[in-house]
């Protein structure tokens, strides 16, 4: 077995999957070397700030209702608490439920870096249990605890008999990975090791891993056609729901990057099939995905009936839209779970992928296979230029300056704005369901057209913005500051 | 020692990257893990000229932890100078770089002949909070950039009427930009020339003027006081510490008198300025006094849960200007103990001998517990942060977010400072009150 649930920690993407954050080349080369296992990483001699695996992992866990996340860290790490609380509460309100999840810091000071603070940490855990009676408590590490060797696992062990709810240590030190998606895996490890129980029976549920469940109603509706009920993870999940993940008929993830660890762990340890197809973005993606789900849950007939009915409704509209999208030149920058799915949809709609950037790249997932989206692209004749860059803004702006696309697509806050300052229309595809299914294709296509047809906001701003980079930089190749491959 | 930080209202010293960011064309370089900037940047308003995704960062890795990250920092600074066009580069250290003991001073020193100035500040997360980090950054600029230039000059005369204004912590205080502009406006009205280094069109030229001011004006309960003391030591510049950010007519008039007196402005001129402003201010107050007096839904008692700056400023305004009664007030910015007594004294000095008790705490749970137990003689007014929305709901309070963290309102360049600012605050408070009827 490759997934070890006897430890609280899980290897980073870099160590576990050979994932990289530095590469520049072509799709064919990336895929070929992923298959051969010869893909190395390019370090950079200049980098810009990106994202921490701890905020990624701990915010995933804080999405669960009525739990406590305690980040054993100085106060800066808890600066994310207000944002997380706002999101969780707004998401709960939207669904008409409540959440009493709390995100607590331990405000470590200089003295703690010398003497350690496992004693005060235990008291804090006790007090948080007394205050809020959370259904589970997750104790997150930090750069400080990692470097001084604070033993959070033994804190958990010591308190286990005393505190009657699941406790887990989360090993998410900020320096351990340049790939924030490593945080998804530590969150999954905590859920698998501290919450999920062995199955007693099979349920009519499917585990549905996503980010912010904006298409919740639509998906419940789709799956009702196949007599199964999705359990959405982790925003608005309950501890009770998570305890029963092992009883589901399948695990599905809206994003391969997001789902690989949980999906494979549930399959490997409890036999819950993990749906590994291209993602449900665009027509081909949606249909391929639905058919595989139908096969796994034994409802192929119902899936085919559903597809036929929806095709009749939406394909004529999609065909019409294609005519308008034809030839639009696109640069995109997203997590790899989206970049290599969205590129497929762009090509399906007749747009041209001029350059694709992914914030990291997993040459294989936790089942040892290359992500399905990659082979699908190659098989269909794609071979665009691409780079792997952990949100390195200077590289993206260099690429946009060089290629002058019709539109830039990104999924992460704080990235699209730079494209428009440089005079390139940009669309933030931040909702993971923006391109989901037939309706999503229409929504997305129309948004692209709206964006390139009214350029007022972008033009107004670009005309008055001074860019932060030197002329020298714009004259370099985008990968000029990448080092030799290791 | 580690303690509960429940509903945090401060973050760590490295958040002073936002102090750097608020100086035109000054760029922070972070010697930290890859995600510190994003954690500390807040949700909105971070797409300015330099913003967190632009900040160079060494993205310290496991290898650097073991072998040291000094060379990685050297290469990052060297390339930052080539790639990003800034006027001033400020290297900030992190938890990781400080614990592993990288000699950042040595690395930064090796760039002393670079085309642009580079300074560094020690801002590990465990050494203070974002307020003290702000002071560290200002201190680094004084010590490493201003002082050597000052010492090398022969001509060191102060410029008559030039006043450096030090107030809100940029970007952490959502109203910082408006506050600085409003304070500048008040100083200018007195015939003085304000000099600030933060916000739109304020950059290195303004920093260069700092040593030549006639005096430093610190408008803040405690943040920035030590910077002013340092400026006095290094450049002989006297300072006026005015603890209260002035909101509304009563406090703003007091502020103008105090600054005018310190600067030697003719008192008749000051009184004239005040009279003109107060006439207009009370014209509006008179028109809407019915709302303030007769809105049946709002009690006469209020509570602030904010940083020292807003807790004091709002309390002064609501008591001395609007005639409300303070409940216990809460300061949640981790004010160092050395400053607490002085701040308590300011709260004890309100009109009609009214004294407000103050609690210094970082534990939102305890604060909310106390508020739940308190008697407000009706529905209270709660001025706090996002965290206080829950207790406001529980106590049926009127509530607005004024202090970090602000999550559910957008502030672009708004301010509550001055005469206009007081009216703006009343608009905000009563826009909430008018949604209800009792």
What's the layout of helices and strands?
The complex is a heterodimer of chains A (486) and B (438).
Chain A: H1 13-17, E1 22-26, H2 27-36, E2 42-44, H3 53-62, E3 68-71, H4 81-95, E4 102-105, H5 110-115, H6 118-132, E5 137-140, H7 143-148, H8 152-159, E6 167-170, H9 182-195, E7 205-209, H10 216-224, E8 229-233, H11 239-243, E9 250-253, H12 256-270, H13 282-297, H14 300-325, E10 329-334, H15 336-348, E11 352-358, H16 372-379, E12 385-389, H17 393-403, E13 407-410, H18 416-421, E14 426-428, H19 437-453, H20 456-462, H21 471-475, E15 482-485
Parallel strand pairs in A: 3-4, 3-5, 5-6, 7-8, 7-9, 10-11, 10-13, 11-12, 13-14
Antiparallel strand pairs in A: 1-12, 2-15
Helix pairs in contact in A: 3-9, 9-12, 13-14, 13-15, 13-19, 14-19, 15-16
Chain B: E1 5-6, H1 17-21, E2 26-31, H2 36-40, H3 62-67, H4 70-83, E3 88-93, H5 95-99, H6 104-109, E4 118-121, H7 130-151, E5 162-166, H8 176-189, E6 193-195, H9 204-209, E7 215-219, H10 225-235, E8 239-242, H11 248-263, H12 267-294, E9 301-306, H13 308-321, E10 325-326, E11 329-331, H14 337-347, E12 358-360, H15 364-373, E13 381-384, H16 389-394, E14 398-401, H17 418-433
Parallel strand pairs in B: 2-3, 3-4, 5-6, 5-7, 7-8, 9-10, 9-11, 9-13, 11-12, 13-14
Helix pairs in contact in B: 7-10, 11-12, 11-13, 11-17, 12-17
Question: What is the structure about, briefly put?
Answer:
The complex is a heterodimer of chains A (486) and B (438). By secondary structure, chain A is α/β, with parallel strands linked by helices.
